[in-house]
């Protein structure tokens, strides 16, 4: 009797194990069925969009530096620097005649140097040679050559042409009194003389060439190309007369006390290192 019971129990255990094994094998399929039932349709495969390879930005005004990775034999692509840009028509910046170094008197200069507003003529920034012997001074404003009025650089050159073959000419200028307060100018006339070969006529120049992207040392005066060629090679650098060397370092005290060897050209930090 006991053996029969033992055999019956063993059979039940074996059947239970088989049933449990079948349910375990089917469970994953049964679990996946609800997920598959909620899908509205076939899932679209992801679309692979082509990625554009953009070139690295370079300054087209300067040659591109060679890629060190290309040293194994491949030649790096380079761009030639832009040619100098020289406008056909430039605003005249200064004129030279018999030791005079002059430039157009503008409203900006009149304000900065405390001259009367509306003054027209050619402002002398430097005098040497016959101009100095005649009695002209830096700061004088030429308003007439003999009987010809001078109001700008072109009329300055035209008036000098009239007396080019003569040995002397009368130069009428306005000279500012340097006393503080409202500007006071007086008119005087000097005689410019040249003993040999005649006085000749004034030579005009444009503003110096600048590099593309150079900071502007003065207030806005219109497009840079109205006055300046853009590029390099038209001016000796450094200047042998130490005129266009890099501006020296200045102190904060000099800036605070407004100590400057030149007229106002903009913020000091635009050109100078300040320590």
From TrEMBL:
It comes from the Bacteria. GO terms for molecular function: metal ion binding. Residues 98-177 form the PDZ domain. It is a single-pass membrane protein. One of its GO terms (cellular component) is membrane. It is found in: Membrane. Its cofactor is heme. Keywords: Biomineralization, Heme, Iron, Membrane, Metal-binding, Transmembrane, Transmembrane helix. This is PDZ domain-containing protein. It comes from Paramagnetospirillum kuznetsovii. The lineage of its organism: Bacteria, Pseudomonadati, Pseudomonadota, Alphaproteobacteria, Rhodospirillales.
